[in-house]
Amino acid sequence: MKKILSRIAVALLILTLIAIVTCFYIGEFTYAYLLILVLFFVFAGMGQLYKLKNDEYMYKKLNKSD
Q1: Could you give the CA distance from residue 36 to residue 44 in angstroms, rounded to a whole number?
Q2: How far is the C-alpha of 35 from the C-alpha of 29, rounded, in Å?
Q3: Distance in angstroms (rounded) separating the CA atoms of residues 66 and 35
Q4: How far apart are CA 57 and CA 59, in angstroms?
Q5: Residues of 22-47 as b/e, b for ≥16 C-beta within 10 angstroms?
Q6: Fewer CB within 10 Å, N- or C-terminus of the chain?
Q7: pTM of the prediction?
Q8: What is the structure's pLDDT at 35?
Q9: For the residues of the chain, what is the DSSP string, one character each?
Q10: Burial class, 16, CB count within 10 angstroms (exposed 0-12 / middle 13-18 / buried 19+)
Q11: How far apart are CA 66 and CA 21, in angstroms?
């Protein structure tokens, strides 16, 4: 399941990059910058999720009773 979702995510990333290049080529700068902003929000959200997961791991590791 994880492998399928990662392939879908990579495909969507490639399509978004192609759409950004196409928008710049045809002169639709507003749409291109909007797509760049969407990519920024997606990557920022992913970073926050990974940070939260790491903080949870560190909390469990530090408070583990042997």
Answers
A1: 12
A2: 10
A3: 49
A4: 5
A5: ebeeeeeeeebeebeeeeeeeeeeee
A6: C
A7: 0.75
A8: 95
A9: -HHHHHHHHHHHHHHHHHHHHHHHHHT-HHHHHHHHHHHHHHHHHHHHHHHHHHHHHHHHHHT---
A10: middle
A11: 55
For the record, the structure tokens of 45 come out as 């959200």
CA 47/CA 17 separation, integer angstroms: 20
The structure tokens listed for 8 are 């879908």
**Look-up of token digits 């759409």:** 19
Residue-wise pLDDT for 3-59, tens only, equals 888 888 889 999 999 999 999 999 999 999 999 999 999 999 999 999 999 999 999
Name, in order, each residue with C-beta under 8 angstroms of 13's C-beta and a sequence gap of 6 or more.
Answer: 39
